[in-house]
Amino acid sequence: MAAKKLKRQSEQFYSSPEPKRKKIDQEADRCATAFYSQPCESLAKALLGCTLVRETSPTLRLTATIVETEAYLGGEDKAAHSYNGKRTPRNEAMYMDPGTCYVYSVYGTHSCVNVSSLGEGAAVLIRALEPVTGVENMYTRRKSAKKDKDLCNGPAKLCQALDIDKTLNKVDLTSCACLWVEPRSHDLADDDIVCTGRVGVNYAGTEWSNKHLRFYVKGNRCVSRL
DNA sequence: CTAAGGATTTGCT
DNA sequence: GCAAATCCTTAGA
Q1: A110: which nucleotide lies closest, measuring CA to C1'?
Q2: Which nucleotides of C are covered by protein (CB under 7 A)?
Q3: For residue A121, how far is the Cα from the chain centroid?
């Protein structure tokens, strides 16, 4: 009986457009609204060590550990797309509920993925992952990657590896059935988190590019740069 | 180091 | 409306 119901739900689920899919059963472990509802810097650090899960088909699940993030605060933060409360069609997701996915394209060909946090226009950029499952499939999209650590060691690389593009903009990570985050399976001490200036934001001036709003797991081979 | 690349925004007419 | 400048990057000299 239950199995039949689940099968029907599953069929409905996979026949609807991917970004619109809602979860059909209890995920074993998925970060919920309470997790995302924390200040940007705090969420950026909390995401380290968590698992980003991307289901691209009924039979293919890609997972990778988050090892590098950056906080974009909105308001005074000149590096943020939402600087000074600016709203555009592009950055709407930054103002949506905590746990909303913000995917934007940069330099034309590349996508980057962020997670909305608590605060107006505040979001966390995911900069690097350590691949865990579905590695072979990642290589099919990451043509130039020679080693596993090259698959996801950059914000646009990870999007390509996990097949994340703008069709996933504005999805709710707490309910989307094809993309979500799972909590840390192991503890991560504060001592193992390195804080530095953010990458690629020199246009914002030294004050904001040097602020320690970039976080990565100390010693991890998959971070985008030293 | 530089070129590529196209979506997005801005600043005009 | 259209043209120009900008860009949270990557791959490959």
Answers
A1: C9
A2: 6-12
A3: 16
Domain limits, chain A: 28-188
User: What is the pTM (predicted TM-score) of this model?
Assistant: 0.88
Q: Give the tens place of pLDDT for each residue, A121-176.
A: 999 999 999 999 999 999 999 999 999 999 999 999 999 999 999 999 999 999 99
Q: Whose C1' is closest to the CA of A124: which nucleotide?
A: C8
CA distance A198 to A167: 26
For residue A175, which amino acid is it?
A: S
Question: What is the spatial distance between Cα A152 and Cα A222, in angstroms, rounded to a whole number?
Answer: 7
Given the candidates 3.30.1360.140, 3.40.630.10, 3.10.300.10, 3.60.40.10, the CATH classification of the domain at A28-188 is: 3.10.300.10
Query: A22-33 in b/e burial notation, b at 16+ Cβ within 10 A?
Result: ebbeeeeebbee
Q: Is pLDDT larger for residue A10 or for residue A147?
A: A147
